[in-house]
Amino acid sequence: LVSSIDMLVEEGLLEREGSFIKFRHDSIMQAVHDFTPESNISRLHLDIGSKIIAQVTSFPSDNHDVYKDLVDEALIVAADQINLSREKKDSAVPRVEFSPKQCITFAKINLKSAHKAGPDIDRALRNLKFGLSFLRDASKTINYWKEHYNLSLSLSEEYAHAMFKGGDSSEIIECVNEIIDNARCLEDSCKAYEVLILALYSSGKKLMAVDQALTILRKLNYPFPSQVDRQLTTDAMETTREFMTGLSIDDLIYYPLMTDELSIQTMRIMDVSLMTFYKAAPALLPLLVSQMIALTSKRGCCNESATAFAAFAFLEMSLLGHFDNAYRIGMLATSMLHHTGASKLMARVFSPVYGVISLWREPVHASIDPLMAASAIGFAEGDADHALACIKLAHRQRFLSGLDLTTLKRDQEDFVKKHFFQSSYFKTSSMRMPCVLKAALGDLSVTLALTGGSEELSALLESATDEKTLEETSLNSNESSYALDACNQRLIKALFFNDFNAVLKYSEKYFAHRSDLQHWLRFAGRIGDIYSTFFGGLSCFILSRK
C-alpha cells in the first residue's frame, strides 16, 4: 500500500500535506469516485472513516495535548467519510448496516465535529443531523435516551438551536418535543423551551410562543396572573425602581454573579420571552421585566440581567415618562454587558438603549456606531430580529443626523438586498419577515424618493410591502403590536407620496388597534409613535423641498 501511494504521489495524482495524503485536484477525486461502482463506495467511505478513528484512538493518552490539533482534524475527516457512507444515489444499492456500538460511536464523532465547525452553521447542521440519524438507527435495538442520555440530549439541543440559528425551523418542533418528552428533570427541558419560543416567534406564531413561555415559567414557579390591572403593574414597577435607586456602575463591578443553574435557565427563558410579550402580550411585559430584576437582586447578575435592565429602562420612559432615570438605567444595562461578558446579547440591549432611550439625552449621531456594532454581533449570534432592529435604527439615525443621502441610499440598498431579496433566512417558508424589515423597506422608499432609484428596486419594494400582503399578515392579526407596526409603516409611506386618503385610512386603523389595548398600556408605544412621526414629518418636509 505504501509503495502504491508513493507511486501515485510521483505520478502527480496524490500529494502529501503534513500527516495527510490527498488528491492533487478535486477533479481527480471525482473521476476516481465516478469510476468506482456505487456498491463499493459506501463501504469504502466507512472503511476510511473507521481506519482514521482506529488510528486516532491509538495515540498515547499521556501525550494527548501534543496530538490535539491532529486528532481534531482527523475526527472531522472521519465524520465526513462516515456520513458519506450513508448517502447513495442508486436506491437499488443496499444500505450499509451499522451495529448499535458503531451508531453510538459515530454519533459522538459527529457531535465533536459539530463543535469544531465554528461559524460554519451548515457544517454544524450536517454533523448534528447525521449524529441524530445514527442514534435513531441504534433505537432498533436500544433505548438511546435511556442508555446514552447525555449524548442524546446534547445532540438534540444543539441540532434544534443550529436549525433556528440557520433560519430553518422545519424540524424544530419535532426535535424540541422529543427533548421535552425524554428530559429527566425540568432543567434539561429549559433549553428546548427556549428554542421553541424563539422558533414560534420568528415564524409569526407569537400567541403560541406566549403560551409556551407561560407554561415553562409556571413549571419554574414563576406563574403569571390571568388578568392584569394597572395597580398590579404599578406595584411591580415601584418595587423594581426601589432596587434600582442609587445603583451605580461602580456597584455593578462588585455585584455577585449568578451561579445557580436553574436560576440562570429561568433568566434565559424570560429573556427570549421579552420580545414575544412586547408584541403579543404587552400587559404581561412589566411583570416579566420586574421578575427578571427581582431574580437578579436575589441570585446575582447573569448575562440576561443586562437585557432586563434595558427593558425596564424602556418601560420607565415609555410608560411613566421618567427620561432621566430611564437613561441612567440604560447606561447601567450597557455596563452590565461588560460585567457579565455577555457581548453576544449586545443587539438585545443596544436596540432599546441606543435606538430610542439615548436619543432624548445625547446627540443623534452618537448612537450610530454602537447600533452598527451591535447589529454585526447580533447577526453572528443568530439573533436576526434584534440585529435587524439595530441596523434599521442606525440607518434612520444617519438620516436624522444629516448623512449624505447618496451614501445612505447605497447602504440601505445593500442592507435590503442582503437581508430580504437574497437571504435564505427570510425566504424559508417557515420563517416570517420581521416587521422591522418592512419598516426598513419603507425607509429605503423615502431615500429613493429623495435621490432617485432604479425602477427594478422600486418595484421589488412595492411588491414586498403591497396592500394585500400587509392586510393578510398584519392588519387582520390579533397581535396588536404587530398590526400597529404595519399600520404605521403604511401611514408614513402614504405621507411620502401625498396620498392623504391613505393617511387618513391608516391613521384610523392605527388608533383602532391602539384603543384595543388597555388604556394605561397605550402609552407603552408612545415613544415609538413620537419617533416615527418625527421621522415621517422630517422626511416629508425634505421631500417637499426637493
**What is the percentage of strand-forming residues?**
under 5%
Radius of gyration: 27 Å
Query: Strand order of the main beta sheet, please?
Result: 1-2
By helix and strand content, what is the structural category? mainly alpha
The H/E string reads: HEEHHHHHHHHHHHHHHHHHHHHHHHHHHH
Total number of β-strand segments?
A: 2
Shape: globular
Q: Biggest sheet, open or closed, and with what strands and sense? A: 2 strands, antiparallel
Return the average pLDDT rounded to an integer.
78
Helix content: over 70%
Low-confidence stretches: 422-432, 474-479
C-alpha end-to-end distance: 78 Å
Written overview of the protein:
This protein is mainly α. Helix content is 73%, strand content 1%. The chain has helices spanning 2-10, 26-35, 38-57, 64-84, 100-115, 121-138, 144-147, 149-165, 172-182, 186-202, 206-219, 230-244, 249-253, 261-280, 285-299, 305-320, 323-340, 346-357, 368-380, 384-400, 405-421, 424-427, 435-451, 455-464, 467-475, 480-496, 500-516, 526-544, and strands at 14-17, 20-23. A two-stranded antiparallel sheet has the order 1-2. Helix 8 packs parallel to helix 10. The relative contact order is 0.05. Residues 422-432 and 474-479 have low confidence and may be disordered.
